[in-house]
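ugh ok fine here u go
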Amino acid sequence: MTVSRSTVRTGLFSFALREPETSGGRRIRRLAQTLIAVAALSGTVLTSVEALAAKAAAIIVDARTGEVLIEQDADAVTHPASLTKMMTLYLTFDALDEGRLTLDQALPVSAWAESMSPTKLGLRAGQTIKVETAILGLVTKSANDAAVVLAEALGGSEARFAEMMTRKARELGMRNTVFRNASGLPNMEQVTTARDFATLSRAMLADHPKYYPYFSRRNFVYGGRTLPNHNRLMSRYEGMDGIKTGYTVASGFNLAASATRDGRRLVGVVMGGKSAVSRDNRMAALLDQAFGKPHRSPKDEAPLVASRSAPDDSAEGDDEVETPVKAKPVRQTRTVVASAKAPAPAAKASRWGVQVGSYSSRAASQKALAQAIKQAPFLLRGAKHSVVESKTGGEKVFRAQLQGLDEKAARKACSELTRHGHRCTTITVAEKM
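structure:
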């Protein structure tokens, strides 16, 4: 009997991943898992071909200003793999800051969490795990079972948590990202872009700086074992201190990383690597190239470009065990090295403003406006506070804007806000109304 990947896809894969409810279901699941293992062993060459075909994309940005320094097909739609866990952790850090979780809080492990494919910590249903241990499990081991524990604690179920993840992605400006699970295990509907994960990386640094050092952990001890961090580039690239690796057949080898040199921090995302080594080498080469570029002085720094990093959107694992999911078709790869943008057409005085976020509630937008005013009180004291309500993918979003500025004042205010780590985009009324 020849076991092919199409055989697994058409008849067995759904049984293998579904939690069994009967003894017959358990027998089918064991059979399916055995056949998947055989297919994996017999399909080594096919796995390599699929990895080679995974979508290649990359982007390097300045972490503080958001300036795009290098990009290669950064908007190509692909699969995030375990980079997904960055959003799971972002929402976990939100909950810690808001008092909904504590680091030493014990969370229950469900049967669904236990059933996750490797890599994992080997959690068992009925036991508990501390929040901080789960965080370290995600950061170093890329533990899928620990990701589900956090998801269920925050969302009630992994499916509801995935909806929370997608909503937060919209708030942060991740225009092309949809989450369907908390771990990054294969799901054809779970998609993203390199640009979106650069946005999430910058948000992690700006919004949760006190938790970011977790991503620098080289290893941690669990169950008597020392678990090393999958991001091995940290050990050989000067200045790198995080963030996350990921891999499935459909995605190829992914890496989101951040490094500092001479007081300047860059964020890089590489998607679709052919191997972990080639992915790491590519990231190192791109960061070297970007660090070699002249660093503009603050007076020359332009604000973020609305078309690339504004939070509005009009549309809606590393090393996990691979499963037979094919990459979505995407447009042809092209490489672009970012250059200075041509000046935008002049707008009438007092028709400019700044946007400081797009949120799921009016209250969150008003809070963002208040924080922006505190960070640049003199530049924004005459601005009109505005929360612009719109619909995105059937959901309401509330855009926090400070309007009524001239172009010079808007650009200066945005530069000041980004200097303080606040997301900001210059806008004109005509662009947004």
